[in-house]
Design goal:
Oligomer: single chain
Strand content: under 5%
Number of strands: 0
Number of helices: 17
Largest sheet: none
Order of helices and strands: HHHHHHHHHHHHHHHHH
Radius of gyration: 22 Å
Helix content: over 70%
C-alpha cells in the first residue's frame, strides 16, 4: 500500500507475533477443531440423509441450491474486516468496536438485498419455492454480523474450545428444528428454518461465552476502520472468488440440468463437500496464525504448509476412495431407491473433491504470508477457469461436469506449486509432490485390494464389510511404509505419540 505508516498502523509482517500460538497450544487447537468439525459433520450428514428420505429428489436439489447461495452471501457479509484483526493484532478497543458495528450494518444490508432480489433469483432457476426459502435465509446475515467478530477474536486467541462448543450447540439446535419441520411435512424450507435457528442460537451463545475477554461498546467512527479496509477488501474479494470457485459448479448445474437430474447430482456433491469442510478447516483455521509467525522465514512457512497438505491428503484420499467404492451399495439402502442415480455419480465426484482438498489450503498460506493481493488475482483467475469448465461440462451432463472439475483441480494443484510455493518458499518439486502422491499411492493400492476382495468374496453385506476391512489393513500397512510422515501427522492430530515429523 502506498504512503507511510506509523509503527502502530503497520501490519504484522515478520518476526514473532505477540500472543501467537506455541506448537503445543496449536496442536491442542487442531484437536479441538478436528473434534468439533467431526461432530458438526456427523450432525450435518445425518440431517442430509434424513432430509433426503423425507423430500423428493427435485426438492433436495433446492435445498443444496439455497445452501450454496447462502454460503456465497456469507463470504460477502464478512467483508474481510473481522479477519483483518488476526493480522492487525494491535487494534485498539475503539477500533474493535467500530469494526464490530460496521460488520453488523453490512449484515443488515446483505439481508435486505437478498430479501428484495429473491423473486428474481427464483425466476432465473425456474423454481418459485426458492423465493420464500431465500427470504427466510436472509435473516441469517443479521445474526452473523452480530457474532462473527466475537468468533474471530476468540480464534485469534486460540480459544477454540469455546468456539467449538458454541458452534456444536448451534448446529444441534438447527438439526432438531430442521428434522422436526421435515417430519411435519414442511419439505425443503425445513432445512432453511434449521439454518436460521442455528444462526440465531450461535448469536446468543457467542455473546454468552465468547465475550469473556472483549465485548463491543456502542461506539463507531469511520476513520477508526480506515486502516483495516485495504487488507479487509483484499480478503473480501478473495473470499468471494473462493466461494464462487466452490459453488459455481452447483449454480451452473442448477441452471442447465433438469430438476430431477440436478437433485441426483447435488446429493453426492453436497455429501462430498461436507466431508471436505470437516477435514480442511481442522488445519486451515489454525494454519494462518502458525504460518504468520514465519513471514520472515518463508522456507519454514513452506514446511508448515507442506505439513498441512500432507495431513489433508492422508485423510481425504482414503475417505473419498471409500465413498467412491461404497456409494453404490450404501446410498440406495440408506436413502431409498430413488437415489440410485445419485450413487452412480459418486465415483466421478469423489476424486474431484479429493484434489479439491489438496488445493483448498493455499488461500490460508497466501494470507498468512502477507500476499492477500496475489491471492486475489489467483482466486479470480481460478474462479473464471472453474466457471468455464463447469459451463462446458454441464452441457454434456453430470458425469462430464464432474470429470471437468477433476481435471481443473488437478491442473491447478500443479500451478500452485510452480507459481506460488516454489517462488515464495522455495518448495522443491519432490517435496511438494511427495505430500500428495504418496498418500494417493497408498489409497490406490488399498482401493485395488477392496475391488479384488469383492470379486473373490462376491455380493452381500458381510463380503462388503470384509472387503472394506482388507482395504483398511492394506492402506494402514502401506502408509507406514510409503507415507510414514503422514501417519505421524495424523497420529499427532488424534493425540497419539508419533515420531518426529519430517520437515
Amino acid at each position: 500500500m502506498a504512503g507511510q505508516q506509523s509503527e502502530r498502523d503497520a501490519p504484522v509482517t515478520g518476526g514473532t507475533i505477540q500472543g501467537a500460538p506455541k506448537q503445543g497450544s496449536a496442536m491442542a487447537s487442531v484437536r479441538w477443531t478436528a473434534a468439533g468439525n467431526l461432530l458438526r459433520t456427523v450432525l450435518a450428514t445425518g440431517q442430509l440423509l434424513i432430509i433426503a428420505r423425507l423430500v423428493s429428489v427435485a426438492e433436495f436439489g433446492l435445498v443444496v441450491l439455497v445452501s450454496s447461495m447462502v454460503l456465497i452471501a456469507q463470504q460477502i457479509s464478512d467483508a474481510g474486516l473481522s479477519s483483518a484483526l488476526i493480522r492487525f493484532r494491535d487494534a485498539t478497543e475503539d477500533e474493535k468496536s467500530s469494526l464490530f458495528w460496521l460488520n453488523a450494518a453490512i449484515g443488515v444490508v446483505i439481508a435486505a438485498i437478498i430479501f428484495l432480489i429473491a423473486p428474481a433469483i427464483a425466476a432465473a432457476f425456474k423454481a418459485p419455492t426458492l423465493a420464500g426459502m431465500l427470504r427466510i435465509a436472509s435473516t441469517i446475515f443479521i445474526a452473523q454480523g452480530l457474532f462473527l467478530q466475537l468468533r474471530v477474536l476468540a480464534e485469534r486467541d486460540m480459544r477454540f474450545g469455546d468456539v467449538i462448543r458454541v458452534e456444536l450447540a448451534a448446529t444441534a439446535v438447527g438439526f432438531v428444528v430442521a428434522i422436526i419441520l421435515a417430519l411435519m411435512g414442511q419439505g425443503a424450507p425445513s432445512v432453511v428454518w434449521g439454518q436460521t435457528a442455528s444462526a440465531f442460537t450461535q448469536l446468543g451463545l457467542s455473546w454468552l461465552v465468547l465475550t469473556r475477554d472483549w465485548k463491543p461498546r456502542f461506539h463507531f467512527k469511520a476513520r477508526e476502520v480506515a486502516r483495516f479496509v485495504p487488507y479487509g477488501l483484499d480478503i473480501l474479494l478473495v473470499n468471494i472468488a473462493t466461494s464462487l470457485t466452490v459453488q459455481l459448479d452447483i449454480l451452473i448445474a442448477g441452471l442447465f440440468f433438469q430438476k430431477q437430474v440436478f437433485g441426483s447430482f447435488a446429493q453426492p456433491r453436497d455429501l462430498s463437500l461436507k466431508v471436505m469442510t470437516a477435514i480442511n478447516p481442522v488445519v486451515t483455521r489454525v494454519g494462518l496464525p502458525l504460518i504468520a509467525q514465519h513471514q520472515d522465514n518463508p522456507q519454514q512457512a513452506g514446511k508448515i504448509y507442506l505439513r498441512v497438505i500432507r495431513m489433508s491428503a492422508s485423510v481425504c484420499f482414503p475417505v473419498y476412495a471409500g465413498m467412491a467404492l461404497l456409494a453404490g451399495d450404501i446410498l440406495p439402502v440408506v436413502l431409498g431407491k430413488q437415489w440410485t442415480h445419485a450413487a452412480a455419480l459418486m465415483p466421478y465426484i469423489a476424486p474431484w473433491f479429493a484434489f479439491r482438498c489438496v488445493v483448498n489450503p493455499l488461500g490460508s498460506y497466501m494470507y498468512a504470508m502477507g500476499r492477500s493481493r496475489h491471492a486475489l488475482y489467483y482466486q479470480i483467475g481460478f474462479a473464471a477457469v472453474v466457471a468455464l469448465a463447469s459451463y462446458i461440462g454441464a452441457q454434456f451432463g453430470p458425469i462430464t461436469l464432474a470429470l471437468a472439475m477433476l481435471a481443473t483441480y488437478f491442473v491447478f494443484s500443479e500451478i500452485c506449486w510452480a507459481t506460488v510455493l516454489r517462488p515464495i518458499s522455495g518448495v522443491s518439486f519432490m517435496a511438494y509432490h511427495r505430500q500428495i502422491y504418496l498418500p494417493l499411492a497408498c489409497t490406490l493400492l488399498a482401493a485395488g485390494a477392496v475391488l479384488a476382495a469383492r470379486m473373490l468374496l462376491g455380493p452381500g453385506l458381510l463380503p462388503l464389510a470384509a472387503a472394506v476391512a482388507v482395504g483398511g489393513f492394506v492402506f494402514i500397512a502401506v502408509s507406514f511404509f510409503l507415507n510414514s510422515a503422514g501417519v505421524d501427522e495424523v497420529r499427532k492430530l488424534v493425540g497419539l505419540r508419533a515420531r518426529p515429523a519430517i520437515g
